[in-house]
Amino acid sequence: MKKYLGFTLLVVCCSVCLQAAAFRKEIPVRQHGKEEGMLLDLSKISMGTLNDVEEKKQYLSTVQLEKQRIQNYTLRMVYENAYLLYKRGDYQRAQEMAQTILSIDPNFKQAQTLAQQASNMGTYGTISEAQVIEAKFQETIRLYDSGRLVEANDKLNEILTIQPGNSKAQSWKRKIDYDIAKEYTRRGDVAYEEGDYQRALDAWYNALLMRKDDPKLVAKISDTENKLRKQQVADSMKQAMEFYNKGQFVESYAVFERITKIQPGDPRVQKYMSQLKNEIAAGYYNAGNKSYNSNRFDQAISYWTNAKKWGADAATMDGLIKRARNAKENHLRVKQQQVLKAEQAAQKAEQAAQKAEEAAAEALEEEPIETVAVEGNVPGLSGGSVIPGSIPGAIPGSSGAIGSSVGAVGTNETLPTLGGTVNRVSAEASAASRAKYIEGLDAFNQDDYERARQAWIVAKQLDPGNSDADLGLRKVEELLK
């Protein structure tokens, strides 16, 4: 990566140098819509292949910093040429070039000042530069007297933008810089006494921008940074242990990783992280085993993959993952076969039921057995009507006891049942009824009571003597109430 990056930077620097040389030979006139031509598009340059994620992030960050540095360098060159135009009195072109800079970097303060000053000076020459400088000096003194030091400093920067060698502005700037640094130092001291080390460091760093050679300030910053680092490590250790005690091992590990960035190489932290990795890996491994035993194969594969990421033996986890995938395929295959067999059984039962229904329909269409209707006197008796309470065929004048005359019923004979008929069911109808009963039983076991009820009703119609269907119907009726 370093080889490719070095080559890219060499190409970029050569290009910028050539552009700068051409720019100094002849001051260009702004071309509208060509602002992006001032920068180089590094995304169009091939940088090779990067595999590691962290390496990619580091590379992209480096490229971004280089692009920003090149942009700043290029804009600084353009600003110098705009200022040269301003000093030559070409206020319109100076203003246009300053506006071009601002279209790329709106926070370029010197370009803002130059554009405004060029606009003022270009108004038919009615405002002289000396008048502008004097007005800004008066504004600077007014702001300073009212305690607005930062705004006063900005006004001085505007003066120095127009006249970089103005000794009066330089003297005032040193004084104001000292006062601003003093105020930032005071704020930092207050924050330090309150225990807010981060706020103290922010204030002292701002003071250091004004007083770069202050050894006392540098020492205070160094000492406070050490204290802040220890404070952050202590707070993070407490949070990490709280997560650990709650069993939130992944969250605890993330906090320990944050500690290593604050204080690298801490052996205690390294020990905790190693222990956490083992526990997290074991947790994923055990969860994968439970999922596998419950036939949740996809979940088991996910757990074992995470276990491998957290340090579990890769070969063992790969073997388990392969085993889970094979088990998943076999499980799906067996399930499909079971579904197919069930569909085939249901189809056969339906065909048998249909045949039974057809057979029953054919039996009903056959000619019915001829019966004899008995009306009035019983054939063979001489009397007109039967006397209630008497036995037909008894000897007249007797007391009604059973005699031995012809036509009388013997003592051991059974009288035939009156009004009843005997129904006989064919073997096919009986088989179809049994099939329908089995179909209803399957629906009952699946808690589909209505389908079970309909199947058993058909079974009862095919074979009225099917007692199993009777029992099933009574059970279903009880459940459906």
Instruction: Tell me the strand percentage band.
Output: under 5%
| Global mean pLDDT | 75
Largest sheet: none
Terminal CA distance: 79 Å
Q: What string gives the helices and strands in order?
A: HHHHHHHHHHHHHHHH
Structural class assignment: mainly alpha
Number of helices: 16
- Which blocks of ≥5 consecutive residues have pLDDT under 50? 1-48, 369-422
Commentary on this structure:
The protein has 481 residues and is an all-alpha fold. It folds into 4 domains: 126 residues, no CATH class; 85 residues, Alpha Horseshoe (Serine Threonine Protein Phosphatase 5, Tetratricopeptide repeat), CATH 1.25.40; 101 residues, Alpha Horseshoe (Serine Threonine Protein Phosphatase 5, Tetratricopeptide repeat), CATH 1.25.40; 55 residues, Serine Threonine Protein Phosphatase 5, Tetratricopeptide repeat, CATH 1.25.40. It contains 16 helices and no strands. Helix 6 runs antiparallel to helix 7, helix 10 runs antiparallel to helix 11 and helix 15 packs antiparallel against helix 16. The protein is elongated, with a radius of gyration of 52 Å. The N terminus is likely disordered.
Keywords:
mainly alpha; 481 residues; single chain; disordered N terminus; Serine Threonine Protein Phosphatase 5, Tetratricopeptide repeat; 4 domains
